[in-house]
Fold these 2 entries.
Entry 1:
Amino acid sequence: MKPRLKMMSKTKNTPLDGIDLILADLDGVVYRGKQAIPHAIEALNKAQKSLQVTYLTNNASRTPESVSEQLNSLGLKTNPSDILTSPQAAMRSLRELVSPGAVVLVVGGDGLRRELEQSGYRITESAEDAPQAVVQGFAADVSWKQLAEASFALHNPDVPWIATNNDWTLPTERGMAPGNGTLVSAVHLATGRMPIVAGKPERALFDFARERFDSKNPLMIGDRLDTDILGANRAGVKSLLVLTGADQAKQVLAADPDSRPAFVIEDLRGLHEEYPQPRVEIDADGKRTVTVRDSIVTMTENEVSAPVPGSSRIDLLRAGAQAIWSSGLAIYGLKVDPAIYA
Ligand SMILES: [Mg+2]
């Protein structure tokens, strides 16, 4: 056994092992507002030396060119073809329902209109033109008139409705604003119908990315469990949560089974660092002990404790998450030592 252990300790198992494509979210992963997130640019540029890195955005009001320009201004090296948007994924869903050449009623901005035109659809803003589909994405100038025309068109049950994304909120420099989901919901309330959604957490954007780069084993990097990680899991894509954005330790411990990431890291330097495998032991009394390097978490019935917090906050969180997730118990009934999510 000894030589084998020695060999294993030499091999560095990072989250990028065996990965052939990185799918990265933007807000909370690459930047926050106008600022790059510490270590993100360096870590992604390093990954890009050996891997295709692609950026996924639900925001339908931006074009791949404008996103790529912004990323390059932060120090990344991207081309517009490295950026995949929810309007592009929406086109993939639309083509399965309505052939190019058809008239499509659009609610949204330039990014969406351009994708529709490039895909060969004819655009209208009036339900009187008998559109064969409705496609809805966010733009800051979407008006009641456009929402009403979409509703009129959707009164025909044979007209499919595709939304680029269903995000309730849109982070802006002045705070949270209503996102596309709120505008979609206005049309939903007027028509009683539900759209097909292309963006995260639905799988169309992930499927589109995998096809575009012919990838067998991609890794999704995100900061939100309910969009990035849930969507990746639905699409069968390995996922990594980075704690530089929306979701933090507490949300990790409470994650539903379908929103649990394969990896949790503090910042993107973790992409290139060894990722420890948690060791789970269960004794005769049912006490669960999870060890991650020098952090130990135990779980007895509904009590989760950290008898040995160890030297790293993130290893302690990984051990706590593993203990709770592997127990199959819901977070609500558990008493969790606050040190684990401090
Ligand atoms: Mg994000």
Entry 2:
Amino acid sequence: MTHKYLELAFTPAVLAAQQRAYGRAAKPHPDGERDELGAAEREFIAARDSFYLGSVNADGWPYIQHRGGAPGFLHVVDERTLAFADLRGNRQLVTTGNVADNARVALFLMDYPQRARLKVWGEARVLDAAAHPEWVERLAPNAGRSPIERVFVIDVHAFDWNCPQHITPRYSEAEVREVIAPLRERIAELERQLAQR
Ligand SMILES: Cc1cc2nc3c(=O)[nH]c(=O)nc-3n(C[C@H](O)[C@H](O)[C@H](O)COP(=O)(O)O)c2cc1C
């Protein structure tokens, strides 16, 4: 587990729960340093075609939204910064409004076939696309067909990997197509042979 993750997630109430349940608590050692994304995290994030984005509203209610795009639409700008283009959507702007009140966000990234998951904590800034063409230019290659209205830039504070337990492997349509391609070829070949008999 990363240092900063322990510091952020293991609050006094969490530690008290651990103490009550197991007779000991995993004491964090705060050192003020943020976690930096390493090669494994950067590669994992760059390959994702979706993630879940958690934010908190002014009343303290948590909120989660699914984000999706072409693989790499969540850009790793550097070891402490992530960014993605916010496309024209349902016009609710719940996450955008939440972030205006409280910049703290949590990202939850899944790789179902590999049964891996990564949690990332950070502080988000929402930039108006019209005022920041440099960001639009940078993120556009992985954006969808809708116009980019905003850009989310996330200063990463902490991350943590979870174990693969209880993750059911699931495959996207593209992944299934890739896996069955040799089988389809083989079927086509056998059909050709049958037709020649
Ligand atoms: C036409 C249309 C296209 C959308 N395209 C995407 C998309 O490519 N990726 C995505 O994550 N959400 C997409 N959405 C969802 C919205 O952008 C959604 O408003 C956005 O995730 C903001 O959600 P929030 O208000 O819950 O924060 C789309 C919605 C609509 C109506």
